[in-house]
Amino acid sequence: MYTKKECVAMLLAGGQGSRLYALTQDMAKPAVPYGGKYRIIDFPLSNCVNSGIDTVGVLTQYQPLVLHDYIGNGQPWDLDKLHGGVHALPPFQTALGAQWYKGTANAIYQNISFADRYNPDYVAILSGDHIYKMDYNQMLEFHKEKNADCTIAVIDVPKEEASRFGIMTADENGMITEFAEKPKEPKSTLASMGIYIFTWSKLKKYLIDNENDENASKDFGKNIIPDMLGNNEVMVAYPFEGYWKDVGTLDSLWEANMDLLNPNIPIDLYDPDWKMYSRNPIKPPQYIGADAVIENSMVTDGCIVNGTVDFSILFEGVEIEAGAVVTDSIIMPGSVIKAGAVVQYAIVGENCTVGENANIGIRPEDCENRDDWGIAVVGHNISISANANVSPKQIVSENM
Amino acid sequence: MKNRNVLGLIFSNMHDDVISDLTKERTMGSVLFGGRYRLIDFPLSSMVNSGIEEVGVITKSNYQSLLDHLGSGREWDLARKRGGLHLLPPFSHVASGMYRGRLEALYGVWDFIKASDADYVLLSDCDVVSNMDYDKVIDYHVSTGADITCVYANDVLTVEQAQRSTIFGINDDGRVVDVLLSPHISGTCNVSLNTFVLNKEFMKNIVLEAASRSLFSFEMNILQGRTHEYKIMAYMHDEYFSRITSMDTYYKSNMALLDSENRKKLFVENRPVYTKVRDNPPVKFGIGSNVRNSLIGDGCVIEGTVENCILFRGVRIAKGASVKNSIIMQDAVIGAKCDINYVITDKRVNVSAQRMLTGSANYPLFLGKGAVI
Q: Which of A24, A306, A319, B355 has its C-alpha lying 20 to 30 A from A33's C-alpha?
């Protein structure tokens, strides 16, 4: 016996996130740490809970160990429910054989029976690669108000960036008249945020049709949305204003973290009315040493800072030894920056050791040729020996 | 993990009176400590880390904050079908329902103890901050064949501290031969850490007998009254601890955590201290923040100067404010350009801009819960 749910969320979390290179070598992108004590998936999960959606299927495929472990029974998000709650949905074997998820639409198709158990009227399709705070319930109300079959959340993007997104053209009532996936010459600046609400009965039909079409690429942007549009289904654009950032690349991940330190950028983690939940570390409070210098930074429980930290984000249990300098950088959980090391414009993964007097990254203004400059990255569980140098743009995925 | 059934019992209200400012609206066990903890977290975590999977918390009064803190016990991994955490508020088949001492309290919850299939019972109060390996204490208790094992430490006490202590005289065999309650002495003493192990069967006998004779004090009627009748052994705890006997020692016990050696001994990697999760964001250090030698809980936003302080979760220090040598409990707001030195603020204190508050090292100024200055 399953309680009926008005709206069930399906969170696509199986992507490799290959453009995060070493950071997603051993974990799926939604499990990548963000913002000092979060992982990317905390944002859509917390949004769900804060929006009153208490049933979430998380579709996993690529390197799911860390992600599954992190989600656990969903308790940190209050999603350990008798009815509903969070469920990890990896690919599975059936009497007809076993298949991987072949695309975003296929992943949902393979889990139709999961959603059906709750007999939902609507299904929200979310992705695990964006940082934003959004009330999905308002979007659902909008969907109902417009009698829509599909509502797509859209955000206005700068014209020059529009060709990186799925671009909508909408009439004055918000009805979508055209959709183009990464168009060379975009006709508007309304970009799809990869957040959809569908009327479930309608979506189910299109998923099944799409699955039966052998030539289809089983993808929402490439198939489902154009198919529905072609059949004149009611499709509306739901305008979103606020902070939304794709963290699919090393640069954008770094920027999205640095945005937290910029008081002019509207991503507020301290808002008691829209709390971001996460699996909290079991660590003592952080200690800032007698000779430490720390400004413009975010630091979490379990950190010990005896060096200099500026414009940086330190995750739980990070230690910055005396004489070490960390600026404009992100240091992920459990890493140690030894005495005298200098880390600038860098991302250091989980449980790394940066040896004494090592140098990781440099400031753009110190780079002779600006084209050579970029964020330096050290993957997870890596030791950098004393006095070693990691150049800008370099991605370290083995001990050095 | 040894296959040994131990029931943990924590007395949350013992010693409430020694820091009455802080226990006005809470139990000793729910007094805030060390930037993110409550005092009960230390014995409770020690129990969990020592493999004790069934714990009863005996309360008396003012226990709302304690219930709120402990909840189902999930954060200590004690939300269990077998064993787990049990809150034991006063329950009156003892005349008044309000126990007068440890024995009476035990008698009041006897049905709970009886139902446990434990062989041993470990009792602890909430006045000692330590990361104790109870497993060793129980080993000692079993190997010596004691009726009662008392945990003590060798400590230098002032007269004031001794008057709030139980002191043991111990012979060469480690047996307790003398018990002094609140003595007028000072110097190096074998001070009780108010942690005891008893065989459950033995405990049954003394608790039921005490009830029939209207005896209520474990220390007075059993330890002191029957020192030679029972085999009472002393187990020395020679690792880190601090004991809270007054506002002064409360302040010093907190400040002791600014010493990295002490932190290493209290926060041991494989014996974590658990506490209630608050889902605070990380600490934000603003432009112009100047923080030194301080312990800071998550969720603080610091834009001023902080030196030699313990800041609990969710404290805000505005621009230009200077907070030194102080303990600021959770969700306090310290206004711009305040100057605060040697102050203890209880939860949710709000100090308006430009106020100056100064206590002294041996007598920190205390601001009660929710005070607005």
A: A306
